[in-house]
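HOLO CASE FILE
Compound: S-adenosylmethionine
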Amino acid sequence: MEDPFSGLADRYNSTGTILHQVIRYELVDRGISEHLPGPPARVVDVGGGAGQQAIPLSRKGHEVTILDPSPKMLAEARRRLAREDAGVRRRVRLIEGTGELSHETLDGETFDAALCHGVLMYLEDPQPMIRALSALVHPGGMVSILTKNAAALAFRPALEGRYGDALSSLGADRDRGRLGVVTRGDTVEELSRSFEEAGLEMERWYGVRVFTDHLGERMPGTELPEVLELEWEAGRTDPYRSVARLIHLVGRKGPIQERFARN
Ligand SMILES: C[S@@+](CC[C@H](N)C(=O)[O-])C[C@H]1O[C@@H](n2cnc3c(N)ncnc32)[C@H](O)[C@@H]1O
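Model generated. Tokens follow.
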């Protein structure tokens, strides 16, 4: 299988300690924790990459499967896991494969939760992935998606003083991200419809990075706890959450809707 992320893996994996990534992982972790049972819950992280979100879940006692098509990202996950204690290592399983074919790759196995963070923006059509995520959870299980907010693309360039770029981002559905590639955004409204079509009931959505998205490579300072509280509260409050760079949606599969997910 061709590695879809090999050209971006090193750069992406090296950004984990900059402020905007720290905020992303912490806020998404808080969001997930509001909906996830356990520990130990059984979680599959589709496109889980180097384990940035999955390894902290394993540290909390959850059992996590990282499913990713990129051997390079999985190799980095293996390296990071080697630094963890035996319990954390034991609770993480790494499997090579794409989300869309996960049902076959995982032999129909189902989970308490399926996560898919920072992946939909690389896919032209999000619907097959959302259906696959729904099929990965049992009735009552949760699906968590994090992706780029198409409704607010002009904010980053405008706040960075790139007014021409901001102007052309108004009404666009994609832009060039920090890794240098053009990726797609989605809206909460479109994704809610996709959830419904896949048999998932939308439980809650959060905005991620309302006030700090334009800070580039800035590292966290002593203000981090305050920034995190500000971003967490704003990300759950209208109208602030609607202009966040990323949207985090959590859905739940209902028992009656299970038949939709199989179609
Ligand atoms: C930006 S990284 C995000 C990694 C991790 N989820 C995170 O939040 O840090 C995108 C990941 O999606 C994976 N990916 C790309 N296409 C995919 C697909 N069709 N199915 C599953 N994963 C995919 C890439 O290999 C890469 O590891």
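CASE NOTES: The longest helix spans residues 19-33. The domain at 6-150+181-262 is CATH 3.40.50.150 (Rossmann fold).
CLOSED: yes
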